[in-house]
Amino acid sequence: MIINLTDTGTAAVQQAMSTARRNSGGPSGLVFTLVVVAELAEYDRALAACLEAGREHPSRILLVTNGRARTDRLDATVRAGEDAPGEIVSLKFHGALQQHRDSVVLPLLLPDLPVIVWWPGRSPKAPGQDPVGRLGTRRITDAMGDPDPLGALEVRARNYCDGDTDLTWTRLTRWRGLLAAALDAYPMDVTRASVSAAPDNAAGTLLAAWLSDRLDIPVTLDRQQPGIGITGVSLSSGEDTITVVRTDGNLAKFSAPGLPQRLVALPRRDLNTLLAEELRRLSDDPVYAEAMSALVRRLDRAAERTQGRRA
Amino acid sequence: MAGPSALVLFGVTGDLARKKLLPAVYDLANRGLLPPGFGLVGFARRDWAAEHFAELVAESVKEHARTEFRDDVWKQLLEGIRFVPGDLDDNEAFERLKTTLTDLDESQGTGGNHAFYLSVPPGAFDIAVAQLRRHGLANRPKGSWRRVVIEKPFGHDLASARQLEKKLGRAFEPSSIFRIDHYLGKETVQNLLAFRFANTMFEPIWNRTYIDHVQITMAEDIGIEGRAGYYDGIGATRDVIQNHLVQLLALTAMEEPTSFGADNLSSEKRKVLAAARTPSDLDAHTVRGQYGAGWAGGREVPGYLEEQGIPADSRTDTFGAIRVDIDNRRWAGVPFYLRTGKRLPRRVTEVALNLRKAPHLPFNGTDVRSLGSNAVVLRIQPDEGITLRFGAKVPATPMELRDVNMDFGYDSSFAESSPEAYERLLLDVLLGSEPLFPQPEEVELSWELLDPVLQRWANREAAPDHYVSGTWGPQSAVDMLARDGFSWRRP
Q1: Sheet holding B177-180, edge to edge
Q2: Which of B299, B343, B347 to mutate against chain A (most A CBs within 10 Å)?
Q3: What are the φ and ψ backbone dihedral angles of A256, each rounded to 5 degrees?
């Protein structure tokens, strides 16, 4: 059932939600509220992702966008029992109301359940300080959804607060798993490490920061190799080397001391898979927090070096 | 089905009469619960003919009744509709009312049974009751009944409540006085009683061994909506906590009554209310707040002091939060937090019983980071039902635990919809069954509980704590629970 409301308020939206729920049999056991803050141009892409996420986790999804009408008003569309097990409410804010979106989102949150705020595209500078972001127990951003991914990742790192994660980190899950397992299987004293990645790839930056934090050595980052996404990692003790090379964004070549080279499926994953993985964990992620602070240190050192050279 | 009777509505032009009472009368008729000999008399300060009043009734019925409008039912009702214009201090008007009722008894066969519904501001109770008495309208001839219905608030403190009781008692017999708390419909009370006393799985945990603390919330998303004259000086605590929330507290915490008869039910409520007390340090355990301007639910709204008809230095509370402890074996050491407010994010009433944490959790610290404590939530409105909250493992993780909710809704589990609270209330008045109406002793006990708090607030120099419209109340309310090691649920 789909109900459209024009120039409305939260009481009317709640009414429409309970009507829709009653008429469609109603979802029970919703597990959280997902607030998706998107720009108008990303609306369709964001709605598709919401429907997908709604299939994976029965939830209440509030899709927040700014509209272009000149009046101060709220338009809403309530969907229940249509194409997802949960409820999806699109909220379009016009005029001055765009400054007070939190006043509409707050009353529509499910009682007592976790709230996750997700910005699929551009995100505010400090998500934890953002009026809508503050309503969330978890805030998910995506530096790769920003026109300047590397810049966006740096802003994320410098404004980190508990509950934040960036999908850049989720993209690294398999890389981190593979590298950690490799070092478990072939323990060695790593003295040199390098990461290579495409020029605008934020995940490569974060992987280098994480490795340098965990191994406590400087990690070089090579942006010159051809390929997409992260293209390779090499860990070396001087004598032995572990390398992972992935140039097609899909299948990687893995080599370790004394073993023949093998193939590992290491596909780049789509947004919905990443989001679904991120939604499994609703508490803050201390390892991510450490990696982000390592990134800040790394960026500061780089800035000092540049300044030093100029001076 | 009610016996022959006439219902006299004072203040029939008010919001309550138009939106709730008149439609409820029609719905009762439509369900076949009103007798053929039924009279409806409107009394108000308007120069109307009976026909004009009938039109107004028809309008409000068409707009607000829950059942469909049927001409035959309407015709039956119309025969007994009368209107008496006049003020409450107008002796002639009361004489006219008397004539009208005598006439109804003859023409409609209402049998001398008259119920007077005082839908007037609390300040006007006195004069209305005095006038009824003076003009002999409260005297019942043998074999018939006279009843009076009043709405909360019943007084504004213990002394005034007692005085009101005394005045009512001079005109009407105790069993003929009905105190209506329209927030707490009979259906809700019965649902609560059934949940507590028809089941075995909840009783064992319904005590201090398992319950950590209880939060009883009634939140409204609206402001005072032009009712400055009624609201200012009364405030949220007198308007809602004194009657509605204290009744919910009593029903939640009382022992099992020996029967659901009026006396037995009331005596259990009285017992638990007598054991209830507010903490001695009232400044640390109570909060009064007042809403300021802001954006609520997507609309820009004024603060309480900017509302029309509110004095700029008003100290009326639009938010109240109070800790209550119950000194008995079942509840010792379990704080009950009562809170109510206007201009909060959403309209909701619930009783949340939060259980103690498990004594030992055989999991890693990181696995249980997003795990809270178990809870049993009685949802009163909207979507009346029960929510159970417990932990579950998130699939496809090593051992990640998270809170999940299991919901039961009366609406979705039973095809029959609950009757509107007012329908049940009016029918009970006409039938003379009083079990679930608050008894005067309960009203007095709840004032005894709240008087010290209200007094403390009245003596305080500081203005009520400010909160922005559309938020969950002042920071001081958050701090009040934090001091006890708890936090408010987001209802």
Answers
A1: B81-85, B38-44, B5-10, B114-118, B146-151, B177-180
A2: B299
A3: -135, 160
Å between B404 CA and nearest CA of chain A: 6
Residue pLDDT, tens place only, A265-301 = 999 888 888 888 888 888 888 899 999 999 999 999 9
B74: which 2 tokens?
């309407």
What are the residues whose beta carbons fall under 8 Å from the beta carbon of B287, sequence distance 6 or more?
B319, B320, B321, B322, B465, B473, B474, B476, B477, B480
Q: Which residues of A sit within 8 Å Cβ distance of B?
A: 8-11, 14, 18, 21-22, 25-26, 28-31, 72, 74, 96-97, 100, 103-104, 106-107, 109, 111-114, 137, 280-284, 286
Tokens of A155: 């802003």
Q: How far is CA B175 from CA B52, B127, B167, B247, B313, in A?
A: 35, 21, 15, 20, 42
Distance CA B255, CA B274 (A): 13
Burial class (CB in 10 A: 0-12, 13-18, 19+), B432: middle
Q: Which residues of B are catalytically annotated?
A: 244
User: Is B298 within 8 Å of A74 when comparing Cβ atoms?
Assistant: yes
What is the Cα–Cα distance from B64 to B352, expressed in whole angstroms? 32
Flag if A29 and B382 touch (Cβ within 8 Å): no
- Domain ranges for chain A: 2-167, 173-265
Mean pLDDT in chain B?
90
Q: What is this structure's pTM?
A: 0.90
Yes or no: say if B295 and B470 are a contact pair by the CB < 8 Å rule: yes
Q: In Å, what is the CA distance from B186 to each residue of B12, B420, B426? A: 23, 10, 11
| B346 with A282: Cβ contact below 8 A | no
Helices (H), B226-261: 228-231, 235-236, 246-253
Q: Which residues of B touch A21 (CB under 8 A)?
A: 412
Q: According to the 3-state scheme, what is the secondary structure of A232-297?
A: EEEEECCCCEEEEECCCCCEEEEECCCCCCEEEECCCCCHHHHHHHHCCCCCCCHHHHHHHHHHHH
pLDDT band at A194 (very low <50, low <70, confident <90, very high): very high
